[in-house]
Amino acid sequence: MSGTTAGYQGMEAVKNKQWEKAIPLLDKALEDSNSPAWLLARCQAHQQLKNYEQALDDACLAYHSAAERGSGNSRKQMIEAQYRRALVYYKMGRYADADCCAKWSMLLAEGRPAREDDGVEKNVDANGNYTVTWEDAVADTKGQPGQANGSKADILANATNATGSSNTGFESDWKRAYTLRSQILGMMRTTPEDHPGRKVTVTKVPPKPEKKVVKQPEPASTIELTDGDNEPAQPKPELPAPGSVPDEKMKSRVDYYQTNQTITISFFVKDVKKENLQVRMAPKQIQLSPLPRAVAPYVQPGDREATSTLLLAGEIDPSASRWTVTPRKIELTLQKATPGVKWATWGTEVIGPQDDDTADSSSSSSTPAPTATTTAAAPAPAPAASKPTAPVYPTSSRKGPKDWDTVSKEMGGDEEDANDVNYFFKQLYKGATPDQRRAMVKSFIESNGTALSTDWEDVKNRKVETVPPEGVEPKKWES
């Protein structure tokens, strides 16, 4: 693969937020060229993976590379480099350094000279602490590009590009850096006076780091020749040995929801071949095989790692259960052996097959269909005739579903209000913490109103899937 191809693929990986995939591609591309665009892309990937020192080196090198090239994109890339410096310093807790770099990004966006002595880093007191405040940053809009007030002088200045308030073409970059400054200085409000993050240690033109050469693995010493060819065949890449990847890394993400009659489990694994998939159901477990493993590419259909066993938290009726396969997941709709019983959770995934005498020895391969057990199961006990079980609603929370009717009554209010759905959600949102509110809004919107979570740690780094009620198929609006 050429360096240019690797560079474009690395940029595309960053665009798709595939940070770990992007870095080796961009390493390859940067062996022969200090492209500012590739350096900035790798900086972003390192920053997302919390490799802050590497990200800072890439941002500084990108600034120098853009300045030396002097192309039509150079100012844009220098603005981006200063912004990336600010973002990395902010993540490192060096707030004074971060605000200086964000301000320099704004000044470049206003069209100011790159080497102008603006004195930004000199705003310190006798103790060396940065003196710029949040209020100062919010009021700092004098040089905002594209904001002329319409006077004759401003119109003339815009036409001749004589002031920093003209249309520079970098208005969005200016606003982005301006927004970041409000976050940085907002954090400084609660930072102790003796915190090292209040000290300024940066310069406008960053020191130029040395280009780091990434050594590629050496080819194997012995190479076989292909039949009829005079050139040696390329050695095959070495794959990890079976068993070298921990089981925890091979486990898939699972979502579920339940009704009084069924529990639906979404098992997220990509590129499963429906015609080859074997699903073995038993009252207390389900076995899926073969499954592709992104973290273990050596897995073959007969390997232990190609099988997942789902140990269920309750008992099901395999003969009345079914499953479907999509490019992104396997969805299991399981009939509860005891209708009306609420499961606290769906269960757990175990890598490899597990012994279970009641598992069906046959398997489904061509079309998804329910599988029956080979041993007679004891008749399911009749549901208790005491009082009806409260309905259980879909949830993406890992802590299990909630009985929202009980929650509604605990919130107070008269009986008429408690039966009003709008009143219930208003009360729930009103009494939630900021993180719980964020989780509620994110999960409700992303799931198209089919899931509600109050666990921000669970939903903040993933998209909440649409989990429609049984018998309902989600469709996009345009379809």
Automatic annotation (TrEMBL):
InterPro entries: CS_dom (IPR007052), HSP20-like_chaperone (IPR008978), SGS_dom (IPR007699), Sgt1-like (IPR044563), TPR-like_helical_dom_sf (IPR011990). Residues 189-249, 350-417 are annotated as: Disordered. Pfam families: CS, SGS. Residues 360-390 have a biased composition (Low complexity). PROSITE patterns: CS, SGS. Residues 400-412 have a biased composition (Basic and acidic residues). Belongs to the SGT1 family. GO terms for molecular function: protein-folding chaperone binding. This is Uncharacterized protein. Residues 249-347 form the CS domain. Residues 392-479 form the SGS domain.
